[in-house]
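Below is a filled-in request sheet from our internal design queue. Each sheet records the structural input a requester submitted and the sequence that came back. We keep these sheets so that new team members can see what a complete request looks like end to end.

REQUESTER: design group, bay 2
PRIORITY: normal
MODE: inverse folding
CHAIN LENGTH: 515
BACKBONE (tokenized):
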């Protein structure tokens, strides 16, 4: 009798674990997509996945679903290990009624989210779904609402990563949008609120799914997604690497990697990385890479707002958040997208105890009617707000230009920077000389018989006065002027000195961040 029951259990498990069956699995593979369980196998360390909710059943009696078996109700949930640390996950099963979300489906999602918060572990959500299950009506919508609530409550408590491995449309997009990071797979993943058919019917515009919300669009144009993977294997590799920089929850420190590199060796290439010609741009990554631990820099949102760099790296094994202007694009000026990108990265780092290191070469906020009408004031204020509110260790390195309000928005001393270093190439001023001279010396230029000669003389005087970091250092707005090649040593020493930073802020429910 016992053997019969065990045999029945094993047969039932095999049937349920097969999802929608061999034919549906074959179609999934033909679409160049893995199954829900194959995806979890790629995410987790081998043999560590423990499923939860395999025997879940829907309750719908309408539109032909009465009595129909939907294995796992279209989603596989559970936990496993990533590099030995527990991570909770949900993976939608497109082979079962197109992975559509409904009452029980969402309850399984919410259960995993609750577990992640209760036990202080990251959560990974793998999205591949036809959207809300229409047959269950308002129960499907309520299920989404419960999930969005969990995403919001978990924000800043445990890291949340969404992997878009197929379609994700309509209200379904808001769960990944509420996560900390989104990874999209090129060619198979799409995210959009309204699909091409609705857009054509309502707006008369024709567009493909890929052109509307594919991975290239959402990582480069909208900035909704943070990483674009070339295939499924790369998506899970990105997720695993990203998790290696993140603490399991907001009460822990980021995982520290062993460091046997010894004393910080100088990087001579940094002494010449800034061109003598002020009009010549340079690649800020040539500054970042020699400073951080070799091979440790992971860029976030690389394709979006390319005039601003965000990412994670290690310094002596310690995880740090990296922010930097990128002079190769828009001269490194701050615009709407760069401000949003930077502010969100700072807030994430602050929530999860990750020190922030900022490299500055900023000529100002990007001018133009489009920027002003688009709200550069409120968007730029986000960056100021995020830096000022952050209580983690903050270190700033002024590499070249640091002009006007944008200088403050890049974590100046007045915005709470714990250490501010400047290279001898740094220029700290209200604005560039070419703009300042006509404003300051209008009368002198008007009275000059040789206006060009007079302007050249005034430009030289202005540059001698402001195009260096020593006046800011004299006012204690810069802590030290350093040799560029020794930047790594100074950052390592500063991180060690301020690693125990404790800062309290006035009691309040939440910030009112500019929108």
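RETURNED SEQUENCE:
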């Amino acid at each position: 009798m016992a053997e019969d029951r065990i045999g029945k259990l094993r047969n039932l498990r095999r049937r349920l674990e097969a999802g929608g069956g061999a034919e549906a699995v074959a179609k999934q593979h033909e679409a160049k997509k893995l199954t829900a369980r194959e995806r979890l196998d790629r995410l987790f360390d081998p043999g560590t996945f423990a499923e939860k909710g395999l025997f879940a059943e829907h309750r719908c009696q309408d539109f032909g679903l009465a009595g129909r078996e939907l294995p796992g109700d279209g989603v596989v949930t559970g936990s496993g290990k990533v590099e030995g640390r527990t991570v909770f996950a949900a993976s939608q099963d497109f082979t079962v009624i197109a992975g559509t979300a409904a009452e029980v489906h969402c309850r399984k999602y919410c259960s995993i989210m609750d577990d992640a918060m209760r036990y202080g572990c990251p959560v990974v959500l793998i999205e591949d779904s036809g959207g809300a299950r229409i047959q269950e009506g308002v129960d499907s919508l309520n299920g989404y609402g419960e999930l969005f609530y969990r995403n919001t409550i978990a924000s800043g408590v445990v890291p949340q990563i969404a992997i878009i491995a197929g379609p994700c449309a309509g209200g379904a997009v808001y769960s990944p949008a509420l996560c900390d990071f989104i990874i999209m797979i090129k060619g198979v993943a799409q995210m959009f609120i309204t699909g091409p058919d609705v857009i054509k019917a309502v707006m008369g515009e024709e567009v493909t799914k890929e052109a509307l919300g594919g991975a290239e669009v959402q990582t480069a144009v909208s900035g909704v997604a943070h990483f674009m993977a070339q295939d499924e294997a790369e998506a899970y590799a990105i997720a695993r690497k990203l998790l290696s920089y993140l603490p399991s929850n907001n009460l822990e420190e980021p995982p520290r990697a062993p460091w046997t590199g010894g004393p910080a060796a100088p990087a001579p290439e940094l002494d010449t990385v800034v061109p003598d010609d002020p009009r010549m741009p340079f690649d800020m990554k040539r500054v970042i890479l020699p400073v951080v631990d070799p091979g440790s820099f992971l860029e976030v949102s690389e394709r979006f707002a390319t005039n601003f760099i965000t990412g994670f790296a290690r310094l002596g094994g310690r995880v740090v958040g990296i922010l930097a202007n990128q002079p190769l694009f828009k001269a490194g000026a701050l615009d709407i997208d760069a401000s949003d990108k930077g502010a969100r990265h700072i807030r994430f780092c602050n929530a999860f105890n990750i020190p922030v290191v900022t490299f500055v070469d900023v000529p100002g906020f990007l001018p133009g009617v489009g920027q002003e009408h688009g709200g550069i004031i409120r968007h730029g204020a986000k960056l100021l707000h995020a830096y000022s509110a952050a209580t983690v260790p903050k270190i700033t390195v002024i590499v070249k230009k640091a002009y006007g309000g944008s200088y403050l928005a890049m974590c100046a001393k007045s915005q709470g920077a714990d250490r501010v270093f400047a290279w001898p190439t740094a220029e700290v001023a209200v604005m560039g000389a070419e703009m300042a001279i006509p404003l300051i010396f209008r009368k002198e230029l008007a009275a000059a018989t040789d206006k060009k000669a007079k302007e050249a003389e005034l430009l030289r005087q202005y540059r001698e006065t402001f195009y260096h970091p020593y006046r800011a250092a004299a006012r204690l707005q810069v802590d030290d002027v350093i040799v560029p090649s020794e930047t790594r040593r100074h950052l390592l020493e500063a991180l060690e000195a301020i690693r125990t930073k404790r800062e309290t802020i006035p009691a309040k429910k939440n910030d009112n961040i500019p929108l």
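SHEET NOTES:
- The mean pLDDT is 93.
- DSSP finds 20 helices and 17 strands in the chain.
FILED BY: M.R.
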